[in-house]
Design brief:
Blueprint lengths: L11 H12 L12 H13 L11 H7 L4 H14 L2 H18 L2 H4 L3 H12 L7 H20 L1 H5 L2
Helix pairs in contact: 1-2, 7-8
Length: about 160
C-alpha cells in the first residue's frame, strides 16, 4: 500500500548491495523495515538482467500477432503461448501475474493501475532480440498492451 510501487525508485546503492549479497550467497533475509521501493527495484532488476526475457525471444512475434485478435481469441492464444514457455519462465509468470493484479486492486492507494504496471514491466519481460533502442521504443505499445492484458486476465491465465 505504497504510492508509486514499482514506479518510484528505491535507493540504487541499497538495491545493488542486496543484489551483491544475493549473488554471493550471503543474503538470507531482507530486513522487514526495508524500503518497499528497494524491494520493487530488486524485482525489476532481476527481470532486467535475465539473459532472455520472461516471455522469450522466440515467442515475441507470436505475442505481437495476438494483439490483432478479439479478446476471447487473444486469451486463448495467450494460454497457448504461455504453455510454450520454458517451465521456469511459466512458473515465474504464474506467480508474477497474480501479484501484479493484486497491486492493481490497491490502485486507489498506490496509483498503480494495470496500464502503469504494464509500462514498468513490459520493457523487462517482453522484448525483441537485438532490437535497437529506437525499435524497442516504437514497439513498446505492443508490449504494454500484452502485459496489461496478462495482468488483467491473470485469474483466467493462471488458474484455469
Amino acid at each position: 500500500q505504497v504510492e508509486g510501487f514499482f514506479r518510484l525508485s528505491g535507493s540504487q546503492s541499497v538495491i545493488l548491495e542486496f543484489k551483491e549479497k544475493y549473488d554471493n550467497g550471503t543474503l538470507t533475509n531482507i530486513p522487514p523495515d526495508t524500503d518497499p521501493h528497494v524491494i520493487a527495484g530488486l524485482l525489476k532488476l532481476f527481470f532486467r538482467e535475465m539473459p532472455e526475457p520472461l516471455l522469450t525471444f522466440p515467442l515475441y512475434q507470436d505475442f505481437i500477432d495476438s494483439t490483432n485478435l478479439e479478446d476471447k481469441d487473444q486469451l486463448i492464444r495467450f494460454k497457448e503461448l504461455i504453455a510454450l514457455l520454458p517451465d521456469t519462465n511459466r512458473a515465474i509468470l504464474y506467480k508474477l501475474l497474480p501479484f501484479l493484479n493484486r497491486i492493481t486492486s490497491l490502485s486507489s492507494v498506490n496509483k498503480m493501475h494495470s496500464s502503469n504496471l504494464a509500462i514498468v514491466f513490459s520493457v523487462n519481460i517482453f522484448k525483441r532480440e537485438n532490437a535497437s533502442p529506437i525499435d524497442a521504443m516504437m514497439e513498446s505499445k505492443y508490449g504494454n498492451e500484452i502485459v496489461q492484458r496478462m495482468i488483467e486476465w491473470s485469474d483466467k491465465l493462471v488458474f484455469e
